[in-house]
Design a protein that fits this description.
By secondary structure, the chain is of the alpha+beta class. Among the domains are: 396-539, Roll (FAS1 domain), CATH 2.30.180; 550-700, FAS1 domain. It has 24 helices and 38 strands. Strand 3 and strand 4 form a beta hairpin. The longest helix has 21 residues, at 2-22. It is elongated, with a radius of gyration of 36 Å. The relative contact order is 0.06.
């Protein structure tokens, strides 16, 4: 079959060559409905001389004529208005760089109809109004850059005091349509668009400031979309703030404390230039937008920028009047949180703000769009609202609030901010309890923030600082949080942190498993009631979860040496290498991997000796293993502060696969365990409630018998 197709194809080629020699064939003609090229069409119209001249200066005409393009064309009247705004009389007076950028803003390689302009081609087909939101284009990457600008570096230690020439990434041009608004909750009547462009016209398809007037024109090398205004090179939010420091200089100055600069090169520029970015705060200098993972087509910031008089008055009142000598003394994380509270990672429409205003931390704030917004501007990477108030985060007044005002707690504050937990601790009327140790105590625990590498580090057993895994940092933070309001620790009991770590409480002192291992008791330095949503407890040590599991705890405790010997004899003990030192092994109980949590009743040496004397301990390995497993209750944590009454499954599973049970009855400080033989074992409160990793241990004076 393949040979037949091959021969047929060859024959067709030979016939075509033969007939091409014999027949004077007419050249291909475009169909009548298809116009000339893009520039032939514009020249024929006669009202686009300035645009054509712009293309020639920018050396774009030949590029566009030799390929397929989508082109946005503004007529001569529109150019007259633009040239007046630039203070020149003709496009010939514009710099070649500006001409190139203006052309780049309106030229998209590949021809696209209206639908193809606002939808993506993915999953082997053009998307449409029934597709998911991420299939819709909102922004188009174009090789245009804002005007080269100079900036004197104020705070970055590598360039402080130097005047740098700043050149940033290519622009992403907003393409705004009624389809887009209908898809993501905006007003399809154009009111959300006209809020930013009050001098524009809404037609349902806008290329930044310009309205597309009428359907696209089909040309031999693409499409023309006629627009009613010249599209200027839009600044990023950062560029806009830099150019308007007479109004936003205070906010911009705060941002510069987090500015970073990198040397770069660009064709045609033979002097030193730099790109700019921001660390720790929203990177409003980044043209692509909030995300860097391929979602640039839908990325957009929303910046709420207070004017200088408003923001300076707030800073004076909140920090500078009798509290800090200067803004540089304010905790860094406080400034980070304040700034990020004014920059959202998505486009927030005016119509959405009118319904309900959520600040960038998701906190509901009373906000009056008509009275508190005094201006609105669309930038290349986001929307900017000029506001006459400061969006103070609720966190400043809620439980975490005092931490924002004290540099001694900056490590824990930064850790909370990094994992994004602060908003969950700041909702009014949602009670929480937070424990916080100061920087020195956290450092002694083996956790620090490396300002040079901008990451958290943890000290290993050799004293070497290593990058802290995100999961470990998250666990550390949640071990200091209880999602309940608790304002009285004067009694005795047990509480569990958000991470599930058990903490023994006695008369305003605390002890978790890790604190027990370290031989320390935690004391309250100060309790601060927010009167909004709970209490912050400043402690002289952090809450530390246990490192020892049951195996390590039993092995390392002389009072259980007899019990450990039996566990080892039954083959229930593993030797596990330490993750930091492969030459160091610790003991672990194999069967405990079956469940996440365990309650262990551990017979002391006297109990084991008595059981051996009375021949209660099986000699065979299977029987011995089951006898020992019967002392562990699976998948639950039971202390003698629980009020419980019931039968609980143990790790001892009989020959038909049914776990044997223990009956446990408990009221505060009194627990009785009834084994399978009917014997009641009273738990001594003084030797109960020892937290180990993934479990709680109770010492007992007699062994448990299954039958």
């Amino acid at each position: 079959m393949k040979g037949l197709l091959k021969n047929t194809f060859l024959a067709i080629i030979l016939l075509s060559i033969f007939y091409s020699c014999e027949i004077d064939k007419e050249p291909y003609q475009n169909p009548e409905w298809l116009g000339g090229s893009i520039f032939e069409t514009l020249e024929k119209n006669g009202h686009y001389t300035s645009l054509i001249r712009l293309a020639e200066i920018a050396e774009y005409r030949d590029i566009i004529e030799s390929d397929v393009y989508t082109f946005f064309a503004a007529n001569d009247d529109a150019f007259k208005e633009y040239l007046v705004s630039r203070g020149v009389d003709s496009v010939g007076q514009l710099s070649k760089r500006e001409c190139k950028s203006l052309m780049a803003l309106i030229s998209l390689r590949k021809g696209r109809s209206r639908d193809q302009l606002i939808y993506q081609y993915i999953n082997d087909r053009w998307q449409d109004s029934t597709s998911e939101y991420m299939s819709r284009f909102f922004r188009w990457n174009v090789p245009a850059k804002y005007y080269i600008q100079k900036e004197v570096v104020k705070y970055n230690p590598d360039y402080q005091g130097q005047e740098l020439t700043i050149v940033n990434n290519h622009k992403w041009m907003p393409c705004i349509s009624e389809d887009l608004f209908g898809d993501i909750g905006g007003k399809t009547d154009g009111s959300d668009y006209l809020y930013f462009f009050p001098n524009s016209t809404w037609t349902g398809l806008q290329w930044f400031n310009a309205a597309v007037t009428g359907p696209e024109a089909k040309c031999s090398n693409g499409f023309i979309f006629y627009i009613d205004q010249v599209v200027p090179v839009p600044p990023s939010i950062d560029e806009y703030l830099r150019n308007n420091q007479d109004k936003y200089g205070v906010f911009y100055d705060l941002m510069q404390r987090f500015a970073t600069y990198s040397p770069t090169t660009e064709l045609g520029i033979d002097y030193n230039i730099y790109t700019k970015a921001y660390a720790d705060v929203r990177d409003i200098a980044f043209e692509n937008g909030p995300q860097r993972l391929g979602y640039e087509a839908t990325n957009f910031y929303t910046a709420y920028i207070p004017t200088d008089d408003v923001l300076q008055a707030y800073l004076d009142n909140a920090f500078l009047t009798g509290k800090y000598a200067s803004i540089d003394s304010v905790p860094r994380e406080t400034i980070v949180y304040l700034l990020n509270g004014h920059i959202a990672g998505n486009w927030v429409f005016p119509s959405q703000i009118r319904k309900e205003f959520l600040n960038p931390y998701g906190e509901t704030i009373v906000f009056d769009l008509d009275k508190e917004v005094t201006g609105a501007t669309m930038c290349s990477n986001g929307a900017l609202y000029e506001i006459n108030r400061v969006l103070e985060p609720l966190a400043f007044k809620a439980v975490p609030g005092p931490l924002f005002m004290d540099n001694k707690y900056s490590t824990f504050l930064r850790a909370m901010n990094v994992i994004g937990v602060i908003p969950t601790l700041s909702y009014p009327d949602v009670p929480v309890t937070v424990f916080a140790a100061d920087n020195d105590r956290i450092l002694a625990y083996g956790i620090r923030y490396n300002t040079l590498n901008e990451n958290f580090e943890q000290q290993n057993i050799f004293g070497i600082w290593e990058t802290m895994e995100e999961e470990d940092l998250t666990d550390f933070v949640y071990d200091q949080i209880i999602y309940k309001g608790m304002d009285d620790f004067s009694g005795e009991g047990i509480v569990y942190t958000a991470n599930g770590t058990g903490v023994y409480v006695y008369n305003n002192t605390f002890m978790a498993g890790g604190n027990r291992e370290a031989g320390e008791q935690i004391n309250v330095v100060e309790a601060i009631n927010s009167h909004i949503n709970g209490v912050l407890y400043l402690l002289d040590n952090p809450i530390k979860p246990a490192k020892e599991d049951f195996g390590r705890y039993i092995y390392g405790n002389d009072k259980y040496s007899g019990f450990y010997s039996l566990l080892d004899k039954a083959g229930l003990v593993d030797s596990i290498p330490d993750k930091d030192d492969p030459d160091l092994y610790y003991k672990s109980l194999k069967f405990l991997l079956a469940y996440e949590n365990w309650t262990g009743f551990l017979p002391d040496n006297d109990a084991i000796a008595n059981a051996e004397a009375n021949h209660l301990i099986p000699e065979d390995s299977v029987g011995l293993g089951n006898f020992l497993k019967y002392h562990f209750v699976a998948n639950t944590l039971i202390s003698d502060f629980n009020t419980v009454s019931g039968n609980y499954k143990t790790a001892f599973v009989d020959s038909v696969g049914i776990p044997l049970e223990l009956m446990i009855q408990s009221v505060p400080k009194q627990m009785v365990v009834t084994d399978g033989s009917g014997k009641e074992v009273q738990i001594d409160h003084n030797t109960a409630n020892v937290f180990v990793r993934d479990g709680i241990a109770h010492s007992i004076k007699t062994v448990l018998i299954s039958d």
